[in-house]
Amino acid sequence: MTRKKSAPRRRFWKSLLWTAGIIFVLFNFISATNAYKFTHFYDPGHTKSTAPVREGGWQKLEDLLFGRDYYKKPNAARPDSFSDVVLTTADHLKLRGWYRAVPHASGTVLLFHGYGENRTDVLPQAMGFVDMGYNVFLIDFRAHGNSDGHTTTIGDLEAGDVKLAYDFIRHKGEKNIVLWGISMGAASIAHAISEYDLKPSKVILEMPFATMEQAVEGQVRLMHLPVEPLATFLTFWGGIERGSWAFSNKPEQYVRDIHCPVLLQQGVHDIRVTPQETQELFAHLHQPKQLVMYQNSGHESLCKKEHLKWLASVSAFLNS
Questions:
Q1: 3-state secondary structure (DSSP) of residue 130
Q2: DSSP 3-state assignment of 171?
Q3: How crowded is residue 45: how many other Cβ atoms within 10 Å of its Cβ?
Q4: pTM for the structure as a whole
Q5: How many CB atoms lie within 10 A of CB 222?
Q6: Strand 94-100's sheet: what is its strand order?
């Protein structure tokens, strides 16, 4: 009798283990494919196949299993008052940017855009700084806009892009360099200052994520999917595929190495960067520091959404 009862029990546990194994493999497959797509931008016009686009549930299932394609966002035409700049990274990528000088400038502001955006998206901020009497330099990160490359590391290798832009302006003889960045751009600034010991005069960080895993959690929330364990798996595979340990990308730690005045700005309704992340970052900053919250904004351009408040807070910070 004991043997007859044990045989079905063994089959049950064997089936359960097989099912768990299949689910684990499938979950890792989905995480790996989506992590690749999150960190890869195709050139405009790219199509992954000649097959007709599927609609409805089949398309959603395909996007879930294999990830959706992300494309480089083209820049608008260069404004007449700006000049073109091309810089070459240590890994031989050409980064393209715009520079504008103003008479009797108070300094130069370097502007760094967010994930999936480009320098055109930060033109309103650039023009705000121009009106305040500053030269401005805007650059497309690797894999963004008109710059070379198709792979983003969301703040890791981009720290080197920040240093490249910083050195370009420093070699012009500029002594008063201000770094401004939004989201991924802000995180990249913090990483660059920590890793390369940059010495800007002031720093303005808008909506930086606290850690890479929390940045992925924000992306998952936008997809209306369970945050965990998906965010952990995506972070793991994203780092492995890009040859790094993504969990070590922690702007909340990098900001400890910023030893100049910092303005941290955040939208109250931001669902990608939580208030707790912002408070953690702010707590790790050295004095003098300021935190400005925007009551009508989410994870978006604070300059566009609450323009007058942005101008007032940034101008006061630069003049303090």
A1: helix
A2: coil
A3: 6
A4: 0.90
A5: 10
A6: 83-88, 94-100, 135-139, 108-112, 177-182, 202-206, 262-267, 289-294
Task: Give CA angle at 149 (169, 66), nearest 5°.
Answer: 140
Residues pairing with 137 in the sheet: 99, 110
For helices 230-241 and 212-222, give the axis angle rounded to 10 degrees: 120
Q: Give the separation between CA 165 and CA 143, rounded to whole angstroms.
A: 16
Q: Are 75 and 146 in contact (CB under 8 A)?
A: yes
Q: What is the CB neighbour count within 10 angstroms for residue 144? A: 28
Q: Which residues contact 280 (CB under 8 A, 6 or more apart)?
A: 210, 252
Collapsed DSSP state (helix, strand, coil) of residue 12? helix
Q: β-strands 83-88, 94-100: how paired?
A: antiparallel
Structure tokens at 97: 């940017």
pLDDT of residue 49: 45
Query: Are residues 244 and 256 in contact, defined by beta-carbon separation less than 8 angstroms?
Result: no
Which of 215, 275, 283 minimizes the C-alpha distance to 250? 215
pLDDT in tens, 76-111: 999 999 999 999 999 999 999 999 999 999 999 999
Q: Identity (one letter) of the amino acid at 107?
A: G
Which tokens belong to 188?
């990249």
Q: Which CATH class is domain 76-211+249-319?
A: alpha beta
Structure tokens of 82?
Answer: 């700006």
Q: Taking the CB of residue 90, how many other CB atoms lie within 10 A of it?
A: 9
